[in-house]
Automatic annotation (TrEMBL):
Signal peptide: none annotated. Transmembrane segments: none annotated. It comes from Parasphingopyxis lamellibrachiae. GO terms for molecular function: catalytic activity; molybdenum ion binding; pyridoxal phosphate binding. The lineage of its organism: Bacteria, Pseudomonadati, Pseudomonadota, Alphaproteobacteria, Sphingomonadales. This is MOSC domain-containing protein YiiM. Coiled coil: none annotated.
C-alpha cells in the first residue's frame, strides 16, 4: 500500500489549527520537532493533568485528505492543518490500518501507528458541527472516530509534501485501532 504526503504542519503552542510548513523533522521517540506535542511523555493537556508520566503515544497526528473531500461535500471548508494534524496524506486508508502498522515517510522517517485520534470539542471552534461530522456509528452502534490516527516516531527524518508513503503491515494477528 502506497500513498503521498499532501501537506505537513507543526505548531509550537497548543491549539487546534497548525500552520502548514515546507517540511517537518520527525525525531525518534519524541515526535515533530517544534510541535507542542513533541516529547517522550504525553503532551496533550488533559492527559498531562491525569498523569504527566504516561508515554506519549500521540507524537504525530495523521489525517487522510479524503476526509476533507467528504467534509467539503457536506458543506465544511477544511484544509490541511485545520484539524491539528501534522501530516495530511492521500492514497492510504489510514483508518483501516491495524495497530502497529509502520509508515515509511520520505527518504528516512518511519512511524508506528498507535491508535485513533479521539476528536475533541476544539473542532467546533473551526466550524460548528465539525466534531459530529467526524464521528459516526457502526451498524452495531459503536462509535466510529474518523479524525485521523496517532503514531510514534521510530526513525528520524524530514517529511515534505510530495513524499511517498509506504505502509508496512505487522505480522501475525492484526488488531483494529482504538482511541489513544
Amino acid at each position: 500500500m502506497m500513498g503521498k504526503v499532501l501537506a505537513v504542519a507543526r505548531k509550537p503552542s497548543h491549539g487546534i489549527a497548525k500552520p502548514k510548513a515546507d517540511a517537518i523533522r520527525l525525531i525518534a521517540g519524541h515526535g515533530v520537532e517544534g510541535d507542542a506535542h513533541c516529547g517522550v511523555t504525553v503532551q496533550h493537556r488533559s492527559r498531562v493533568a491525569q498523569n504527566p508520566d504516561q508515554p506519549n503515544l500521540r507524537q504525530v497526528h495523521l489525517i487522510q485528505a479524503e476526509l476533507f473531500d467528504e467534509l467539503a461535500g457536506r458543506g465544511f471548508s477544511v484544509v490541511p492543518g485545520d484539524m491539528g494534524e501534522n501530516i495530511t496524506t492521500r492514497g492510504v486508508d489510514l483508518l483501516a490500518l491495524p495497530e502497529g502498522a509502520e509508515l515509511a515517510l520520505g527518504a528516512a522517517a518511519r512511524v508506528r501507528v498507535t491508535g485513533l485520534r479521539n476528536p475533541c470539542k476544539q473542532l467546533e471552534g473551526h466550524a460548528p458541527g465539525l466534531m459530529d461530522a467526524v464521528l459516526d456509528r457502526a451498524a452495531d452502534g459503536t462509535l466510529v472516530r474518523r479524525a485521523g490516527i496517532m503514531a510514534i516516531v521510530l526513525r528520524d527524518g524530514e517529511v515534505r509534501p510530495g513524499d511517498e508513503i509506504v505502509v508496512h503491515l505487522p505480522e501475525g494477528e492484526r488488531r483494529a485501532l482504538q482511541p489513544v
